[in-house]
């Protein structure tokens, strides 16, 4: 996973969707690999000019990896050749091959294996099983939400019931 990809990822837990504290995911126990990529100044300027890269998040991430070569802030007109070459190296040539990303809000750990981050839903397994059962309960109209261990599921059960009543 390139640091460019990391800069686009945020925690998708329900409790984190309404907060701004779900980004950037903290890198933990990572193995890095440098893979050379052809320099493309136009591509980098497009990334930076379009606001596609969160500068604050990038600086925080690279500093956590021990690199302090980027300034704290930068304006689009300050993107000289030196900064663009640093960005090229950091965003495109550094690959995270193993490790984990930790949400700063809920502390959920997303693993990275063979350079691929596992961003699959972090909903507890018991809730997923009960959600599948919910369809059966709902179709038989004997829905009983006693799932107090999973508040979002209880809310969705109530919403499904309300939606069903409206459609009738």
Task: Tell me about this structure.
The chain has 168 residues and is of the alpha+beta class. The chain has two domains: 3-117, N-terminal domain of TfIIb (Single Sheet); 125-167, no CATH class. It has a four-stranded antiparallel β-sheet. The protein has helices at 3-6, 41-49, 55-64, 81-93, 125-139, 151-167, and strands spanning 26-34, 94-102, 109-113, 116-117. The longest helix has 17 residues, at 151-167. The model is unreliable at 125-130 and 140-155 (pLDDT under 50).
Detail the topology: elements first, then pairings.
Blueprint: H1 3-6, E1 26-34, H2 41-49, H3 55-64, H4 81-93, E2 94-102, E3 109-113, E4 116-117, H5 125-139, H6 151-167
Antiparallel strand pairs: 1-2, 2-3, 3-4
Helix pairs in contact: 5-6
Poorly predicted tracts of residues: 125-130, 140-155
Could you give the distance between the termini? Answer: 48 Å
Structural class: alpha+beta
Shape call: globular
- Given this structure, which CATH class of the largest domain is correct? Mainly Beta
GO molecular function, one term: protein heterodimerization activity
Protein name: Trm112p-domain-containing protein
Pfam families: Trm112p
GO biological process, one term: rRNA (guanine-N7)-methylation
């Amino acid at each position: 996973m390139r640091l460019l990809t990391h800069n686009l990822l945020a925690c998708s837990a329900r409790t984190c969707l309404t907060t701004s504290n779900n980004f950037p995911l903290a890198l933990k126990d990572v193995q890095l690999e440098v893979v050379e990529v052809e320099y493309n100044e136009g591509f980098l300027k497009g990334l930076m000019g379009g606001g596609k890269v969160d500068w604050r998040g990038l600086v925080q991430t690279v500093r956590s990896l021990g690199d302090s070569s980027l300034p704290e802030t930068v304006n689009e007109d300050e993107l000289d050749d030196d900064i663009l070459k640093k960005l090229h190296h950091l965003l495109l040539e550094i690959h995270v091959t193993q490790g984990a990303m930790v949400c700063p809000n809920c502390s959920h750990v997303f693993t990275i294996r063979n350079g691929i981050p596992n961003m699959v839903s972090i909903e507890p397994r018991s809730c997923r099983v009960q959600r599948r059962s919910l369809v059966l309960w709902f179709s038989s109209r004997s829905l009983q939400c006693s799932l107090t261990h999973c508040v979002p599921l209880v809310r969705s059960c109530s919403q499904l019931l309300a939606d069903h009543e409206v459609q009738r």
